Batch of 4 targets.
Target 1
Amino acid sequence: MRLRPEVLRALRARSCLTCVLMLGAFSLQDAVAQTSNFEFRESLSFEDDPSSSFELPSETDAQPFEQEVEEGLQRPSARPPVSTVGQQLTGTSRSSRAPKFSERVEAVSRLSRPVGGGGIDDEGVFDGETVQDRPVGIQLGSLRLTPSFDAGLGWTDNVEQANGGTPDGFYEVDAAVGVVSDWERHELGLELRGSLRAFFNEPDNNQPVITGRGNVRLDLSDLTVADVEGVYSFSREERSSAENEATTGRTNSVQEIGGRFSLSRQVSVVQLRGGIGVDRTVYGGQMSSSQPRDNTVFDATLRTSFDNGATFEPYLEGGFLVRKYDEDCSGDPSCFDRTSRGYFAKVGMSIDRGPKLRGEFGVGYRAEYLDDDRLDALQGFIFDGAFVWSPTRRDTVTVSGATSFAGTNISGASGSILYAGDVRYAHQFTQDLVGDVQLGYTYRTYQGVDIVEQEGTGSFGLVWAFSKDAALLSRYTFRAFESSTAGSNYTSSLIEAGLRIRR
């Protein structure tokens, strides 16, 4: 479960360079930032008086956030829907847009959403965003519209993201529009986003991504809430993946469509949440296998948590699922019937120390039993969770992990299990200059066949807001991929810079 020594050395060298750049930037902070005497938040010792965990911010501490109000004009923070932590970690391929730091902070904040209320505002927690161009939105009655547009140029030494890849330059664009409600009760959130990374000499490796997301929260009573969520995404498959069936030209397209209905109820100190969901995956393009991979997963879940206002709150979650493939075998002995039924169970703990530390973590087990007796059960331990730690008002750290099960049509394989985790750190040099560092690792194993894929990533980015609506973006990303499949290992470096406009 480890990357080869030479790959680790390459990743370590670039990670060290990233840390050196950040430390060098820190040393220049006094020269470029406003004078600030901020200190670390109070100790995380849980023996302290609980009332002492919430400190009153001084004028100096609160200055970066109070600057959102200038000349009597308040700049509220519009919040379109964001994907969950698990979706951000396991649903984002190398051909997809990486989630922003602020999206991760928002996703963790929504883990602590109480019944009958919206997401918890982590006042005083730096979310990785610049202050001057924080989106205000366009008010349309009781709805707020939040448009944004990014455009830039970049270069990579491995366009194909595969063994023996070639260098090339590219341009990229990213356009999004979000809609959020401004109602006293209930909540509506929508976001539509499209992006394209187009290479100058290798158009077959262009990376189009389209995502749509919506959610409606209905406050049925003070103690009962109903949520309806929907999501759609389009991207292209990774060329180095064992699942890739396109030998030439463009890789196959992947479309994911999902929906979920859930009902939450607060009963004394117990919070109950039940839900049903459906997730469909459709592949398009070249198919070397006679058995398509298109499949749909139906699930029903129930979660019980103890919401008594304590710092630590345990929870128990479980559910049942059915995975149905579009293509049935119809008596063909050479066909594998991968339709499956299964369950999962998980126990975990939520932690809420206000603006200092918040999140949850759970471990458990999941199993899918396939109808075809020739195939092993797709089963294994699962873990997921995320924490946001804010040691100072200018620094935030996130630690996240997730597990995902996926179907396959590889001969003899039951499916794959993906374990993913990352650590992110964001620092506010000034109100208009922020930087972040990210380190991530994924491990995918296929059950029934000897295929293992591992990937390590590291990146460093800077954002400078030079006006109330525009900012300059820059990022460097290093990636090391290793597979037990011969000829699939590769490394890549990518550097990009561009302009962001949002309202």
Target 2
Amino acid sequence: METIGRKRKASKEETATKSKRLQSIADKEQEQENKEIEEAKDLKEWKTDGTVLFGDFGAKGSEKIAGFDMDSTLINTKSGAIFAKNSSDWVWWDEKVPKKLAKAHEDGFKIVIFSNQAGIEMGKVDPKTLKGKFIQLHKSLKIPFQAICATSKDANRKPNTGMWKYFVDNCNDGVEPDKSQSFYCGDAAGRPKGKNRKKDFSDGDRKFAINVGVEFYTPEMYFQNKKEKLPPLAFDIKTLKSLEGKSPTGEEEKYVSEKQEMIVLVGSPGAGKSTFWNNYLKDYVRVNNDTLKTKEKCMKVARQALKEGKSCVIDNTNPDPATRARYTSIAEECKVPCRAFYFDIEKNVCMHNNEQRKVNSNRNHLSKKVGNVIIHTFFKKCVVPTTSEGFTEVKTIKFIPGPFENKSDEETYYNS
């Protein structure tokens, strides 16, 4: 029994010693982080401009720009967590990274890190910790660079070109970059799963380079000199540009009826239903759940419009016959013909248009951004309308970009 007691005592002492050792390491890491945070406060070149965070580590203006993503391109988290636990929670993505960056600097390139950091807006990333990380990178690299971070999911976030425009206008000493001599390197290239590599979470870095107009490299291509054949982009909104000005039905026609009627729109959020109403059916009373809030109010307003001799448009998703029957029954009750306009739009286009409601501040949006799950749910539930539901006609509408309210609206739309 005495032996067992000694073993227990020794085990407790060993556990206590280990605990003290771990605490000592944690205290040192915290002390280092606090020091870096203080240094970040003192660095005069840190600047917050709207949703852009900018840090200058002595880089001068240049025509040749070497742009890089940061996470999973220059560095990985040491802990393996998605978000760094502290400013010391990082390791180089590859041991060749610092040498290649130094060589780029030696060759006359200005090193600029363009990083999406919406975790700041979401409260998952402390900007002080992020600044401390950049300070560590600078100490390790010993070469000048600049860091530009988009702290929100807006027009500054890649693949939008907001960060690049901010850099050109404010951070390059008035020197216009030569895009033919510049490049951008990032891991989000839209690649499928490969050997020792997960599927890319997006193609945002690749699209950013395309939208800016510079050469693109993956980290494997740039730092490891590997040859990669990148797959076609899964979706590129620019392919729709050629459709501008064309008819949504493929025919030149007038959508307004000379007689009183009801039109039920059927389509996903982001399909362009409200814009279609605004462009072609503005004289019709718009019945919309986003503004009226409940189906009961929508039905009340639709019935009232018809009883007052007005035509109306049901501008909701209306995915199935049961939902649409609420309105066809009102039309039948008021002895008014009812047509259905089915918006046959690809999900990717709907997702893009939905995102515009958040990132594009250059136009007046008739609807607010919804969660992606709502769009997925629509496509899962949608039943294409037919005349058997009581519609006198079912018209299929294709998506046509525009008309745009201004040049900035158009640029943001195609560069997102």
Target 3
Amino acid sequence: MIITAPICFSNAGITIKTRGNSNHLSSSSFSSFFYVGSLHCFSKGCSKLSSRNKKNGTSSLCRANLITDPDDFEVGRFFGSYGFMNITSYSKFQPGPDVEYSTKDMEQLRVQDVGEGTVKIRLYEGRIARGPLRGTQVIFKVYPGQRAGGIEADMMAANELKAHVFLQSNPKEICQNIQILLGGFETKTGEQWLAFRNDGNYSAADYAKVKSEAVSKDRNLGEEKLWNRFDQEQTIKRRRFFVIKLLRGAMGGLAFMHDRDKLHQSLGPASVILNTLVEKDAAYLVPRLRDLAFSVDVRYSVLEEGPEILSEGLWRRASAAGAFTPMEKRAFGIADDIYEAGLLLAYLAFVPFCEAGIMDALSLQRLLESTFQLDLEAAREYCLADDRLLESVKFLDLGAGAGWELLQAMLNPDFRKRPIAEAVLNHRFMTGAVL
């Protein structure tokens, strides 16, 4: 339930006033992290961000019309938390200090830069309490302060803020497939509260989980469910249409970012939010990318300055793959995002069509990368022999194997041969021509 009474922030503490009852939740105060005409946020990380914005000529946060006064917000219920994952791929290799790999081997070797749980994010519902957007529902994404999350939490929060401000700097070019930042503030204890427009609490991972559980339920009903073949066929058709529209939305957001020299670098089922899970409402589905904490700026002027801490892993992989010049590094970074998008495609082609527990993201990744070394033709033959994976195979088989063709291109071991996001969107599997 959203708190309807005003939330008062004072130097003595945070006091929520509700019908004569007050509860002191903290001994810290909230202060705006913007000053008019300049950027003042995220303590240590943001003074650097401010100078960086001026140097690169990007718009200030004030120009982005963000709400920065904590009194303008009302905080509702806590509804979840999660840890960031910044993994481009699973690898079975366990190299020792004396083991050397060729450039080709190293391009296959993907490392986990930041494991889940390194920085725990809390999520709250809320709304804007006053001003032109009064009543607008928001989701608060709360980064812990340095005491709880270390300097990395500050860097991630600042990077996510910077990425959204950059992508929203032109009000005439707002992408509907990227989550919209409305404002935020910093607490006295160093927590960073980012307020996003509430366009849905569901993720692509939630969708896949719900549908796989529905498949399990139908299988358990056995013959009681099989009497209506037409209904079963319609369910599969709706699921295919929903998944392709979900993927188109995610790729549309990624194409928008790449066109503006921004990488996502944390793309996965949990980083795509949905406004509905109902397949019959697919016409109204609007997928949106979130979690830009690991976003990387690949403008040539920035690449020439050297890597930032959060992108060091990416550029190590780029060097191992033979990408050294700014142009090669930019191409590698874009291809790295496409690889992650390919894993997302594989996930959504399998998990929603299988029984719960048959396939998950990591198992599928291991199957494709370790077992079949990204040979999708061999992977198809394996899946075809397993009746539990039959619907997934049929889905990717549409259009004379259009799904497998696209997946093979996106997961090509040679980053130079992977398609760009626009090419993925224009592929016949993604246009819906195969349905």
Target 4
Amino acid sequence: MKRWRKRMITASTVMMLAISWTGSHAEASESVIFDSTTIQANGKKFTVQMTTIDLSDPYLRVMPITAESGIGYVESFAGMIERSGAVAGINGTFFDAYEEDESKRHPNGLMIESGSFVRSGENVALGIRTDKTAQIHPLQTKLSFKVKHNNKVYTVNPWGVNTYYGDDADQVVAYTNDFAQQIDRAGGMKVVVEAGRITSMTEEAAAPPENGYVLYIGHSSNNDNHLLPNIHVGDQVEVEALVADSNSKSTESVAEAWESAIGVGPKLVTNGQVDVDFERDGFDDPKITGAANTRSFVGVNGDGRLVMGTLSSATAVDMAQALVELGLVEAMNMDGGSSSALYADGSMKRAPGRLLSNALIVKRYEDPQVQVMVNEHFINENRGFVKQDVTMVPFRSIFERIGADFNWDGEERVLTAKRGTAELTLRPDVSEAIVNGRMIKLEQAPAIVDGHLYIPLRFVGETLGAKVSWDQELYRATLELK
């Protein structure tokens, strides 16, 4: 039995924050459970294979994944599972499976990963919120760039994120490195946005920054005469990325509210009742609305756990009734037929009949993952983690949000930073830091993981005088700094 508790600590007692998931390793292994069963619905019998996932397990994260070569390409489902190290996975949203050009087999639904848009869209979608709850609602992504030049603000509203609009010269598309490592489309200006500024504008290929964008602006007369004259290298840029929820009538920051999402549909179950409305959800293809075929689904059960699985040959309405019989309170259709795929319990439970554009996976990490908030802002791009009972947090993500000055010397492998009266020096793999000229022993050496420097949370609290609170249920550390 996991024991959940909350406690508040201050900088003077932050040394107590040596935390661990109070569930045992045996319990952790039970956070992803596979089952196969036969269910009767609408007078028919169906075989259901499904995996149930405990979203509260800090070792687990759920996320969409796209083909290794980038959005628009395809890859074997087995390759996606192996490459990502997933412990469970299911095929994802619809894509242009019959497109002859293998670089243009684009997905059709929205995707969000780590609070960032992988692909824009407006769909019925499974969303995992930052409070670790799952819901299935109609969601719409919204992205805008507010460009400031000479005290004037010009707003750029891209048509989409990592989407494909053919050769339309008037298009404006925001690309991230999820799409490709280089954006080399001809016929348009590539505007690189990074760290709140336009860093370059070029007709040549441009690489999307890790946490930034390349805006592709087609050379139509409209864009050349009215858009491009309003943006310049060096301009400040405020990026606004939002998700609108039609059910709750709310619009929230994607980074603050959403961990991940994938848009597919149609909706199957709402509040434990069959809820299939093809017209409402925008579907008229007979393969979806009436034909019986192998089906894939995601849903939420009465305990709030995520369920993903496949069903033997069934119509969408039959599947919805079967999922109600299984006790799901929310459910949504995924791509099906030859795309249906399920991996769980260390083996392929259903192999797809084609290469896939995308999938939804469950990844288990070696160390429990820690959510971090700083001054009421959620750090979604990087998680902290617990290593040998020490909570490690992402340095850059924290210090950027508190307005600290810092510099990384790659050759010397040394980081210097200053905030207020505190000046500090850190080195990866060295368990000592220098603070205002004084040597400080660290409980664990800073570490570089996936190109990011992580430092002990205790050090942040003691050095900066932070007030730190811990939410055991969410596995979240919250720092408040003046």
